[in-house]
Every structure is written in C-alpha cells, then in structure tokens.
Design a protein that fits this description.
The protein is built from 9 helices and no strands. By secondary structure, the protein is mainly α. The termini are far apart.
C-alpha cells in the first residue's frame, strides 16, 4: 500500500497539526498578555519603538512567519494579518502581509503540484476535502478566483487543492496576485479597527 494513502498516517499528521494549532494559539495568548502588560498593544508609540529596534530582521521574520503560516496552516490567517497591521501600521502591514501570503500560496501550490492529491488527505480533514472537491469537476478557476477575492473559504486549503488540478502556473499566480489584496485589506484593516475599539473600551 502507498504510505501516502495510509489512513493511520493521515490521521496522525492531522492530529499533529491540530496539536501545533493549539500550541500556537496558546503562544499567541501568552504574547498578547505580555504585549498588554508591556504597553505595546495600547500605545502606538511603544509598538513603533519596539518594532524599530528589530529593524529589517523583524520585517523578514514576520514575512517568513506569514509564508510558513500558509504552507502549514496552524493558526487562523486573520491573526497574522492583524499582527502585521499592529506591528508595522496599516500601509506597511498590508504590504508585508501581501508578500508573505502570496509567496506562501505559491509554495503551497508548488508542493501540491509535486506531491499530488494524497497530500491533501495528510494535511486536511476528509470533510473539508469532500466539501470542495466538486469544484474541480468544472469551472474550478472561476470558483477559486471568487474564493480568493472574497474571504469566505479556506484559502490555504484551496491553494493546495489548485495544485492538484490542471490549473496552470500563470493562471494561479495571476489569481493570487490580483485577488489577494482585497481579502488581505479586509482582514488587516477590519480586524485592526475592531482591535482599536476593544482597546479603547478596555482602557
């Protein structure tokens, strides 16, 4: 039997990703508490000074985090977008989010194109795969582009799914580069606005 189709290995991989997701969320909570106590989350000046100390290394680290977050979707993507805006401001945060997410999306497509459909069963639940598999029957590019433009579907999974279809590199790249800005802006600026209201209420 091909090991990539082994349900035991697939379940163990999904369990490991779920564990990493829980650990990642716990780390986010810890960092949020630390940032709150340090005044980073309530003072734009303190946040700017903290980011300024990291310099280019901080930017590269954040972009790398966003790339990995797409390839290994452990945390909700919205958290990364919110972090980008809080750390670097609206314009720069959007730009760094865009670079990281687009590069990560291209990597996910490349990995799926190389490994094939069995990879989906190792990384994602059967229910999620079944829900969107019908998209590959016909007009996949149209539905994929709509899902990327409107943040209503699991983009990370769809990038992997696209890699198992006949979609060309050129078509996929154009959809990602042109479709991602609207969704990223909505997540980044929308969550930042909500966060600002929460901080104002708590302080």
């Amino acid at each position: 039997m091909n090991s990539s189709n082994n349900p035991v290995q697939s379940n163990s991989t999904q369990a490991a990703l779920q564990l990493l997701s829980i650990v990642g969320l716990c780390l986010c909570v810890v960092l949020a508490i630390w940032g709150w106590r340090a005044g980073l989350l309530t003072s734009p000046d303190a946040m700017a000074a903290f980011v300024g100390k990291a310099g280019a290394a901080g930017i590269l680290l954040f972009v790398a985090f966003q790339i990995v977050q797409v390839v290994l979707p452990i945390l909700p993507g919205g958290l990364g977008c919110l972090a980008g805006v809080l750390l670097f401001g609206g314009l720069h945060g959007f730009f760094y989010n865009y670079i990281g997410i687009c590069v990560g999306s291209l990597l996910a497509f490349a990995i799926a194109r190389s490994c094939g459909r069995p990879l989906l069963h190792r990384l994602f639940s059967p229910s999620l795969i079944q829900r969107y598999s019908s998209w590959t029957d016909r007009h996949f590019a149209k539905w994929f582009a709509l899902a990327i433009f409107l943040p209503v579907a699991p983009d990370d999974f769809l990038c992997y799914l696209a890699g198992t279809t006949r979609m060309s590199w050129t078509q996929f790249t154009l959809i990602i580069l042109l479709g991602k800005p609207a969704a990223i802006a909505l997540y980044s600026l929308g969550l930042a606005a909500v966060w600002t209201q929460v901080i104002a209420y708590l302080t």
